[in-house]
Design the sequence.
């Protein structure tokens, strides 16, 4: 008598061993500090060019703000909570894009008159000959 394993135990799409449980996602914050550092003119020039510099050993750095790199929220507001950017980052892009308010069309002045124009050909040789894709003379 041969013994067979159930199909869910040998799923080729799942690379984990069958006895290993899935790990919970890491929802912790990544803290960063906005700092103010006094530097010499030479280091300032290097930092401006490269975007980074090396601080000297023992140099005191004033922390302006401590916040999470992911959700961009201050330390004192979200300490002890999960990072909202790792859960859902819609708040960073202005909310849910499907329910976002449409752009307002500007209202023309009261004495303005809308005059319909002709159709403009923007592609092809007619557009080039018509002056759409080249500056007027």
Sequence:
């Amino acid at each position: 008598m041969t013994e067979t394993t159930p199909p869910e135990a040998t799923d080729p799409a799942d690379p984990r061993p069958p006895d290993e449980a899935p790990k919970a996602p890491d929802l912790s914050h990544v803290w960063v500090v906005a700092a103010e550092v006094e530097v010499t003119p030479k280091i300032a020039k290097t930092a401006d060019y490269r975007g980074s510099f090396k601080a000297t050993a023992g140099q005191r750095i004033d922390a302006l703000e401590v916040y999470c790199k992911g959700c961009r929220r201050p330390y004192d507001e979200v300490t002890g909570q999960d990072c909202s950017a790792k859960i859902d980052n819609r708040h960073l892009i202005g909310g849910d894009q499907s329910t976002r308010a449409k752009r307002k069309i500007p209202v023309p002045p009261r004495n303005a008159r809308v005059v319909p124009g002709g159709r403009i050909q923007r592609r092809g040789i007619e557009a080039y000959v018509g002056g759409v894709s080249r500056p007027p003379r």
